[in-house]
């Protein structure tokens, strides 16, 4: 009797997810943007709508440094922030 489990001849080919997973910032290239965003969240009782500019800047940093896939800001929900205007009040 064989102890190996044979479930067929298909081989598993792992694929990375399209969204939601990206490389860690091992060299801290965007650390200051992340810290600014986290401070904003803390200062605003984790009301993320008040920190959209910081979130946009952090994601722009990650895209510029190839730490995540380049996406149009409009597609990421920041279309209203392009050009420096924001509806969130501080």
Automatic annotation (TrEMBL):
Keyword set includes Cytoplasm: yes
Presence of the UniProt keyword Cytoplasm in the record: yes
GO CC terms of this entry: cytosol; mitochondrial intermembrane space
Region (Disordered): 1-20
Domain called CHCH: residue spans: 30-64
Alphabetized UniProt keyword annotations: Cytoplasm, Disulfide bond
One GO biological process term: mitochondrial respiratory chain complex IV assembly
Stored Pfam families: CHCH
Extent of Polar residues compositional bias: 1-12
Subcellular location: Cytoplasm
Family that this chain belongs to: Belongs to the COX19 family.
Protein name (Swiss-Prot/TrEMBL): Cytochrome c oxidase assembly protein COX19
């Amino acid at each position: 009797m064989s102890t190996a489990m044979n479930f067929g001849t298909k081989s598993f080919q792992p694929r990375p997810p399209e969204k939601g997973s990206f490389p860690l910032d091992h060299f801290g290239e965007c650390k200051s943007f992340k810290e600014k965003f986290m401070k904003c969240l803390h200062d605003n009782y984790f009301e993320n709508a008040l920190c959209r500019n910081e979130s946009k800047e952090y994601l722009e940093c990650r895209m510029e440094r190839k730490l995540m896939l380049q996406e149009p800001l409009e597609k990421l929900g920041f279309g209203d922030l392009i050009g420096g205007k924001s509806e969130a009040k501080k």
